[in-house]
Sequence to fold (227 residues):
Amino acid sequence: MKSATLEEIYRSANAKTVATWAEKPGIGTVKEENYYDPVKLALATGIQPPLSAAVSRLITALQQCIQHDPLADLLPARGFHLTFLPLTLPLYKEHEPLPEKVAQLAAIWSDYEAKKLVIRHLRLVALPDQLLLAGIPESPAADLRQTFCEQVMQSDWKAELLMRHAGRALPAPFWHSTILRYHADFLPDSLRRYFLEHQDRDYGEVSGELILASVNYNWTTCHPLSR
Fold:
């Protein structure tokens, strides 16, 4: 995917969310269930880059916005990551043996392990109930991800991959980290205002080595499989 197209996707997502917020001034219905299982682990690929000063300031600023709001789930600094390709839903208890076929997945991943992923021009992307930090991957990341996705689809992990994406685009177009989830239909006014004031800010770039790991939903628990 060309950068210009990805830029358009991010702008379109933001415009759609802002229009939704304009029609929905409140937070809507509080969600009774979690976005993802808070305990079980999923298999995923991505990077855990060093936390840049700009991203650190963003997390601090969002913390000040939410104060002690129990509905706000802000990504802890230690969990900062950017996903390459999520592979499964949270299916596994921590420390339980993974299926034997994980060896097949690890063999596929060996061609991608430790390759450097650079994502530039990070910016806020808003969904009705979430804030993402999304950017533009440096070549050849998009081609690598597409090829890896196709290889997984031809493997014994096809069903798990399809379940994880639940009919959505595969692979998903965004290159991002979910910075904040809100356990209601819509973000509150404080977070909407912060987004509107900072949506044009460039938070720079991050880079890191790709890993395959079992992770919880926000990567604060991360067990690399291939190291």
